[in-house]
Amino acid sequence: MIEVRGAVKRFDGFAALDGAGLTAEAGSVYGLVGPNGAGKSTLLRVLAGVCRPDGGTVLLDGQPVYENPAVKQRVAFIPDELYFFVSATVADMRRFLRSVYPAFDDARYRKLGAAFGLDEHKPLRRMSKGMQKQAAFWLALSLRPEVLLLDEPVDGLDPVMRRQMWGLLLTDVGECGTTVLVSSHNLRELEDVCDRVGVLHRGKTLLERDLSQLQDDICKLQYVGERAPEGLEVLHESASGRLRTLIVRGGAAAASAAAERAQPLFFDVLPLTLEEIFIYELGGEHYAVKDILL
Amino acid sequence: MRSKTSFFNRGIDRKSLTRYWPVWAAFLALWLLLLPTALTARRLYAEESGRWYDGVVTGFAGAPAVLIVFFFALFAAMAVWSYLFSPRAAAFYHALPVRRRTLFFTQYLTGLAFLAGPACLTALVTWVTELAIGCADGGRAVLVWLGAVLLLSLFFFSLATLCAFLTGHAVALPALYLLLNFAVVVIEYLVRVALTRFLPSVEVGSLCFAAMSPPAWLLSNSLSCGGTCYAGFPYLGWLAFAAAVLTVCALLLYERRHTESAGDVIAVPFLRPVFRVGAALGCAVVLGSGFFALLGGEQSRPLYVGCLLCGGLIGYLAAEMLLCKRFRVLRGCWKRLLPALCAVLALACMIAFDLCGAEKWTPAPGEVRSVTLEDSVFQAPDDISRVIALHHLALSENRRGGGNEASIEIAYRLRDGRSVRRWYRIGRAAADAGDPQTALGLCVEILNAPEAVLSRVLPRQADALSGITVCGSGGAERVLRPDDWDGLLAAVRADAEAGRLGRWPQPETDTWQLRTEYRAGGRYGSRCVCFGSGAAQVIAFLKNNGYWES
After folding, report:
1. Is the pTM above the cut of 0.80?
2. Among A residues 20-79, those touching chain B with beta carbons less than 8 Å apart
């Protein structure tokens, strides 16, 4: 289990993490979302043991990650900006990683090699960004990690490869109980794979819930009528002709009941996509996209 | 569960060795070319003794070793610590399941192996070569060379390692390395040059802090002294101790280093103000002296202060630009700039206006072990007090140009081990010569005393006389036989006591010279006094013994 409580990380006085926290159960996929500069990459780097947190606790199965090789052996980290040795091939990287990670699985490496179809003897710098990303996945999954930290993992991958990548990850989660912590701007994609979502903003965790719970807690109410439904916490309101749309906090049942009491000509309660939830939750935090959608 | 503590990771070590092979391969190739190959080539053309070949090998432990190791230690450090300078590489290495301490020792030992491995291999090949070509003399010279190269490698690599942890940029590392190696002597030299410009009595002399610049010290001192003799080991021992301290400092910095400092010019936050002020002061002296020389300011103190302020301003802004990585920095830094410029102003005034009182300084008689005035050495307390009194008079006359002056040099050896040397110009009016209340009069009285004259012929500290030569006004020289030395010295004493020889200031009629050569404390020295036709005893002795023709 990954547990982060009150993590603080400052860069020259600027707090990239300012009390962030998250809890990810073993064998789950955790989506980390937030606007640019929210601290997602920093949190992942802290979790990977790259940076030392200035405050708070960062634990993996109850053990601190920073300067703890026994814990770090169980973690694979694919950053947004990949690093390979100059002129190295996948085979070179494999040799190096095998000498550092005791759990490196050669059989899995060979099996994944067939799936990815990359030439392991081709210099990585001659590969496209997408192919380099595939190589990074190939090597990371060969480490047989218990925790996989992914920062914008499918950027640069074509749709077929994205699907294949998620398939491989979810297979690992299902078969090996791998915990995946993924940060991404592609919320539609996270929506399909995440069990739990955390929203970061300005270094703080705004909310953290199971995806299903999150979707149950906010809904979109559309109606045509003279009276506005009462007793609802409205996060956003807009109109298009006679059709009015409200984004309200609370479950679909409560929104339906309130709408019925207002006796509109027509009403409908719709679930929000993760992207819409992200925008409206952050709207309350003065996020500038408040009025973009709908 | 924490893993067992390990201080070395073979996987990372192997990767660094294979990845940066050009560094150690070039180091090896260079030494193989210089030592075994050079020995073989010399053997082909010369039939010399084994000791001669030992001298050749030990010679390579001097300047060649210093220069080669100086640069290759930097290259090795730039290679093994290169991951610190790229954010991606830093993230990759620090995500590996190794502690920073393990990473540090692995990379440190690997970098050291880049230098030590080829050095050991070269030593082995050289020794085998010596055996093969028949010029081996026990292999001692090879061991001396190896010891020197290993100690030099240890120091220079440790220094470069510390530089790597102070900086976060691949270009900043060599810049800081060069700066730390040479800044002290360059700045001290420039300050001394400026001091002599404004304070003529103060000498440039030998640099006090030369030992703070190891390459400059090692290159300026002759370390190889023939055969297997190598004089540099005591200093190299100190450097090895310094290397251990530098390594500990580097490790402590690494354990606190922020990964995100990759790309910063100065990676340690608390050193950034030091860097700014250091750049301001350093550039003030270096650039300011350059501006002053370009403007031909001679002895204009305000101009010098202005030049130093300009240099300091440029240095501070350049440092700020490097730290902020942008050119427009003035608006954000002017508040911090003012104290730095005040420091530069204080430094400039200290140099130009002698705020430390270097020129006006005189010692208390009790502080002085001995004093030398114009080649005459005085150790008696009374004599020392009289020279100090002369020093006071010279200061009060404070002559600078204007003609009819005599120049005197006073050099003190103090009881705390320091040496202080001063030059002064004093009035040379004939009327003053007999008045001991004037600097000239007192100087004449001190220097023309018989013991003072005799000490100019043969210093008291001389262990043995090794030669006496008499030079005529036409350039003819007569070298005296050792049998005649005592007789001549007796004649010299008689003339000195009568005030007929070695008088100061030198009369125009004293056109002949008596030059003595002596040995003192293992070193050779020489002295020269002048005499004229009035030195009756000396001339008579020379005539009687066939050294004087007309």
Report:
1. no
2. 45, 48-52, 63, 67-73, 75, 77, 79
